[in-house]
Design goal:
- This protein has 824 residues and is mostly beta strands.
- The chain has a domain at 1-97 and 111-118: Ribonuclease Inhibitor (Leucine-rich repeat, LRR (right-handed beta-alpha superhelix)).
- Helix content is 4%, strand content 20%.
- The protein contains 8 helices and 39 strands.
- The strands form 5 sheets. It has a 15-stranded parallel beta sheet with strand order 7-8-9-10-11-12-14-16-17-18-19-20-21-22-23, with no helix packed on it. A 14-stranded parallel beta sheet has the order 24-25-26-27-28-29-31-33-34-35-36-37-38-39, with no helix packed on it. It has a 6-stranded parallel beta sheet with strand order 1-2-3-4-5-6, with no helix packed on it.
- It is globular, with a radius of gyration of 32 Å.
- It starts with 8 loop residues before the first helix and ends with a strand.
- Pfam families: LRR_1, LRR_14, LRR_R13L1-DRL21.
- This is Disease resistance protein.
- Residues 384-680 form the Disease resistance R13L4/SHOC-2-like LRR domain.
C-alpha cells in the first residue's frame, strides 16, 4: 500500500486470520496503526519485529488466542498491563528493544509462557516480581538483579530453564540455597555481568559475590564480566572428571590476579581473556605442577588474549622444560597488547594453524609455527620468515606498513588467499606468479601500487582480483584473458602498453562489480562483448577527465563499446565527454533491470535518456544540462508518469541551475510518485524546486549549501530534515504547514547566529541535532513548545555549547525538560 501506516481493509475483514507478519526488508517499517489488530481475535502469531512503534496499544490484550508475539528491535519503552491477559501466550520476543525499561507487573499471569527473550535490552531496570510462577518457562535469556523487582531466589523454581541464561547487575546477596543454579542441568551457557563500577572500589577477595552462582556440571559455556575479585572461589576450579565446560570468557575483571587451575581441565577447548589488568602471563598456569607428564590445557584449541596493557615478557617460568603446553592449540589471537614483546615458543607449537596479531607494535616473533596455514597481522612483521611456512593457505597482511614484498613469498605454493590491502606496496615481485593455487588476491586501497607482475597470467586458479581504490595503477599486464576462472575483477585499467580491452571478452565468469578506468575509446563492439556478461551487476565507466575539456564526443563512439547485459543493476559514469548518451542507454523498461544510475562530472552532457526502472539517481557536476534535461522524451498526457519507481534523487554541484520548473503543458503528469529521499547539494543559484517533486511520498529532505533556495512548503509526510551550511530559506525559517510527521532534524555548519524560526510548529519532532554551528549564539525559546522532543544533541558549537550546560548555562532552563541531552 502507498500509505505505510494503513492496514488494508481486506486484512481487517479476514476474521479467521491466524498469522500477521510485517515484513521489514529493506528498512524498518514506519509506525503502523496496530490498534486495528484487536479485530482479528483468532490471531495466533503476530510479528512486529523492526516496526518503529514506541507504544503497544492496550487493545493487544484482546488477542486471547495469541501464542507468539515478536516485538524485537522496536522502540518500546514499556509494555501495557493488558499484555498479561494473553494467557495462551507461549513466546514473547523482546530482543534488541534498546529503550525497554520495564515489563508489566502482572507478567506472572502468563502461566503458559515458555520463551521470554530479552537479549540486548540494556535499559531494562528489573524483572517484575513473581517470575517464579512461570513454571513452564524454558527460555529466560536475561535475568536482571534488582532490589525493587524480582529477587534472585525466584530462579530456584524455574526448573525447566534451558539453553542460555545471562544474569546482569550482580552485586551479591542471598544464600547459596536461594539460587540453586546447580540444579539447572539444562543450562548450557551462563553469563554473569557484575556492576562495572564495583571493581573500581573494594575488592571482593573472598569471592562472595560469585559464590552464589555455582552451575551444574553440564554447563558448557561460562562468561564473566566485571567481576571485582582477585581470584575466583573454589567452586570455579571445576573438577576435570565431572565438568563439561568447553568455553570460558573472562572480560574486564580488572582485579583478577590468577585463574583457577583451569590448565588441568580436559574439557576446555576455548579460552578468551580480555582486560585483566592485575594478572601476569603466569596467572594462566596457576596450580600447574611441573613434571614430564604434565599437560597444560590438554584440549585447548582456541586462545584469545586481548587488552592486556601490562603484559611485557610472556615466558614460561617453570622449572621443567618437559611440560606440554596446549598441544592441540590451533587458533591463537593476540589483540591490543601494546608492550608485549614475545610469546613462549611452547605456545607457538606444531599444532598451530591460525595466528592473528593486531595492535601489538612491540611483539617480535622469531620463529613461526611450521604448520601455520593462516596468518593475519597488522604489525611490522618480518615477512621474510613466511617462506618457511610452506603449509600456509591464508595470509592477511592488510594494513601492514610494508613497501615491498620479498621474493620468498613465491615459495608458498599452497597459498589460496593473500590480502595486501591498504599496504604501501608500489609493485609485486614476479615470484608471486609462482602461486599457482592462489584463488584470491586483494590489493584494495594500495594507493601507491603502480604495476602488477608481468606473469600474472600464470595464476590460472585465480578467482578474485580486487583492485578498488588503486588510483596509481598504470595498467594491467598482458594476458589477463588467460585467467578463465576469474570471477571478480573489480578494476580494469585501459592502456596502450598493457592489457588490451578486447581481453575482457574471454572472461565469461566475471560477476559482481567491474570498473573500467582511463577510457579513451578504440576497438569494436565485438572486441569487448560486455553484453554477454550477464552476471555483472555494477558497471563503472571512468573516462579520462582531461578529454571532456577538449573535443566533444557527440556521436557517443567512446561509450558505444560498453553496452551491458540487460541484467545490469547499477551504472556509474565519470567524465564522459558527450552531449548525450548512445541509444543503448535508453534501456527499454521491459528488458532492463537497471535500478541505480550515477552520472558525475560529465560536463558536456545536456540530456538524460528516459529511465523508467530507476530507483536511485545521482547527478553531479553536469554543467551543460538544464533541469528539464531530466525529463527528455517525456510526452505530456493524462497517463504520463516520470520516473515511476524512483525512490532516491541526489542533485549535486549544479552551478548553473537557477529556475527548476516543470515546462510541461499537461498538469496531469505525475512526477516521481515514489520518491522518498531528496538530496540537493552545492547549487549556489538554485531558487526553487518544483512542487511536483516535493510530493506526498517524500520522507527525507537534505539541503546543503543552496543559499538562494526558497521552499515555501515542506512535504506533508516528511519525517527527516537535514540542513547543512546555508540551506536558503529553511536555514532562516521553517514554513508553517502544520507538519505532524517530522521526527528528526539536523542543523549542521549553519552560518547563522540563530536557529530557524517556526520550530515550535514541529509538534512531532523527537530528535534535534545541532552540529558544527560556530556562529550560533543561543538556543531558541521555541523548543519549550516541542512537547515530543526527547533527544537534543549539541556537538562542536563553541558559543552555544556552554550556554546549554546543565544547571549553569544561560539557556538551560529552556531545554531542561528534554529527557536526553548530549553536549560535546
Amino acid at each position: 500500500e502507498s500509505n505505510d501506516s494503513f492496514i488494508p481493509p481486506r486484512i481487517l475483514n479476514a476474521k479467521n486470520l491466524r498469522t500477521f507478519f510485517v515484513y521489514p526488508y529493506p528498512n524498518p517499517r514506519p509506525n503502523l496503526d496496530i490498534k486495528l489488530l484487536h479485530h482479528l481475535t483468532c490471531l495466533r502469531t503476530v510479528n512486529l519485529a523492526r516496526v518503529a512503534i514506541e507504544t503497544l496499544p492496550n487493545e493487544v490484550g484482546s488477542l486471547i488466542h495469541l501464542r507468539y508475539l515478536d516485538l524485537s528491535k522496536t522502540k518500546l519503552v514499556e509494555l501495557p498491563e493488558s499484555v498479561c491477559n494473553l494467557r495462551n501466550l507461549q513466546t514473547l520476543k523482546l530482543t534488541s528493544c534498546k529503550n525497554l525499561r520495564r515489563l508489566p507487573e502482572g507478567l506472572r499471569k502468563l502461566v503458559n509462557l515458555r520463551h521470554l527473550e530479552l537479549l540486548y535490552t540494556a535499559a531494562l531496570e528489573c524483572l517484575p516480581k513473581g517470575i517464579e510462577e512461570l513454571r513452564c518457562l524454558q527460555t529466560l535469556s536475561m535475568f536482571v538483579m534488582s532490589e525493587e523487582g524480582c529477587q534472585l531466589r525466584e530462579l530456584s523454581n524455574l526448573n525447566n530453564l534451558c539453553g542460555s541464561l545471562t544474569i546482569t547487575n550482580i552485586r551479591g546477596g542471598g544464600s547459596k540455597e536461594s539460587k540453586n543454579l546447580k540444579s539447572k542441568e539444562h543450562i548450557r551457557k551462563l553469563q554473569l555481568d557484575f556492576v562495572k563500577e564495583d571493581y573500581e572500589g573494594k575488592k571482593d577477595d573472598d569471592g562472595s559475590a560469585i559464590e552464589l552462582f555455582e552451575p551444574h556440571p553440564n554447563l558448557e559455556v561460562l562468561v564473566v564480566w566485571y567481576y571485582g575479585g582477585s581470584k575466583f572461589p573454589n567452586l570455579m576450579e571445576f573438577q576435570s572428571s565431572s565438568i563439561m565446560l568447553c568455553r570460558l570468557q573472562i572480560t574486564e575483571c580488572r582485579n583478577l590476579e590468577i585463574l583457577p587451575p583451569w590448565a588441568n581441565l580436559e574439557s576446555l577447548q576455548c579460552l578468551l581473556l580480555t582486560g585483566l589488568d592485575s594478572m601476569s602471563p603466569m596467572g594462566l598456569f596457576n596450580g600447574l605442577e611441573a613434571s614430564s607428564t604434565t599437560v597444560a590445557y590438554p584440549n585447548l584449541k582456541e586462545l584469545a588474549i586481548e587488552d592486556m596493557k601490562h603484559w611485557e615478557e610472556w615466558v614460561m617460568e617453570t622449572s621443567s622444560e618437559d611440560i606440554n603446553v596446549m598441544p592441540l592449540l590451533r587458533d591463537l589471537y593476540i589483540y591490543d597488547c601494546p608492550i608485549l614483546k614475545s610469546v613462549p615458543h611452547q605456545i607457538l607449537s606444531q599444532s598451530l594453524r591460525k595466528l592473528f596479531i593486531k595492535d601489538c607494535p612491540k611483539l617480535a616473533i622469531s620463529c613461526l609455527p611450521p604448520l601455520l596455514e593462516e596468518l593475519i597481522s597488522d604489525g611490522d612483521a618480518d615477512i621474510k620468515l613466511l617462506h618457511h611456512l610452506t603449509c600456509l593457505r591464508t595470509v592477511d597482511l592488510s594494513y601492514v606498513a610494508i613497501e615491498t614484498l620479498p621474493n620468498e613469498v613465491g615459495s608458498l605454493i599452497h597459498l589460496r588467499y593473500l590480502d595486501l590491502s591498504k599496504t604501501k606496496l608500489v609493485e609485486l615481485p614476479e615470484s608471486v606468479c609462482n602461486l599457482r593455487n592462489l584463488q584470491t588476491l586483494k590489493l584494495t586501497s594500495c594507493k601507491n601500487l603502480r604495476r602488477l607482475p608481468e606473469g600474472l597470467r600464470k595464476l590460472v586458479n585465480l578467482r578474485h582480483l580486487e583492485l578498488n581504490y588503486t588510483d596509481a595503477l598504470e595498467c594491467l599486464p598482458k594476458g589477463i584473458e588467460e585467467l578463465r576462472c576469474l570471477q571478480t575483477l573489480s578494476k580494469f585499467v585501459m592502456s596502450e602498453e598493457g592489457c588490451q580491452l578486447r581481453e575482457l571478452s574471454n572472461l565469461n565468469n566475471l560477476r559482481g562489480s567491474l570498473a573500467i578506468a582511463k577510457i579513451r575509446g578504440g576497438g569494436s563492439k565485438e572486441s569487448i562483448n560486455l553484453k554477454s556478461k550477464e552476471h555483472i551487476c555494477t558497471l563503472a565507466l571512468e573516462f579520462v577527465k582531461e578529454d571532456y575539456e577538449g573535443k566533444r564526443d557527440d556521436d557517443g563512439s567512446a561509450i558505444e563499446l560498453f553496452e551491458p547485459h540487460p541484467n545490469l543493476e547499477e551504472l556509474v559514469v565519470w567524465y564522459y565527454g558527450g552531449s548525450k548518451f548512445p541509444n543503448w542507454m535508453e534501456f527499454q523498461s521491459s528488458s532492463i533491470m537497471l535500478r541505480r544510475l550515477q552520472i558525475s562530472e560529465c560536463r558536456n552532457l545536456e540530456i538524460l535518456p528516459p529511465l523508467e526502472s530507476l530507483q536511485y539517481l545521482y547527478l553531479e557536476g553536469l554543467d551543460s544540462m538544464s533541469p528539464m534535461g531530466l525529463f527528455n522524451g517525456l510526452e505530456a498526457s493524462s497517463t504520463t508518469v516520470a520516473y515511476p519507481n524512483l525512490k532516491k534523487l541526489i542533485i549535486m554541484d549544479m552551478k548553473h541551475w537557477e529556475e527548476w520548473v516543470m515546462e510541461i503543458s499537461s498538469k496531469n503528469i505525475t512526477v516521481m510518485p515514489r520518491l522518498r529521499d531528496l538530496h540537493i547539494y552545492d547549487c549556489p543559484i538554485l531558487k526553487l524546486v518544483p512542487h511536483q517533486i516535493l510530493s506526498q511520498s517524500v520522507r527525507k529532505l537534505f539541503i546543503k549549501d543552496c543559499p538562494e533556495l526558497a521552499i515555501s512548503c515542506l512535504p506533508p509526510l516528511l519525517e527527516e530534515l537535514i540542513l547543512d551550511g546555508d540551506a536558503g530559506s529553511l536555514s532562516r525559517s521553517v514554513p508553517f504547514n502544520d507538519n505532524t510527521s517530522l521526527k528528526v532534524m539536523y542543523i549542521q555548519n549553519s552560518p547563522h547566529s540563530t536557529l530557524p524560526q517556526g520550530l515550535s510548529q514541529l509538534k512531532a519532532l523527537q530528535t534535534l541535532k545541532i552540529v558544527d554551528c560556530n556562529s550560533l549564539t543561543c538556543i531558541s525559546e521555541e523548543l519549550q513548545h516541542l512537547t515530543s522532543l526527547r533527544e537534543l544533541y549539541i556537538t562542536r558549537c563553541p558559543i552555544l555549547g556552554p550556554r546549554c550546560e546543565k544547571d549553569v548555562g544561560k539557556d538551560w532552563s529552556i531545554m531542561s525538560r528534554i529527557p536526553s541531552i548530549y553536549i560535546s
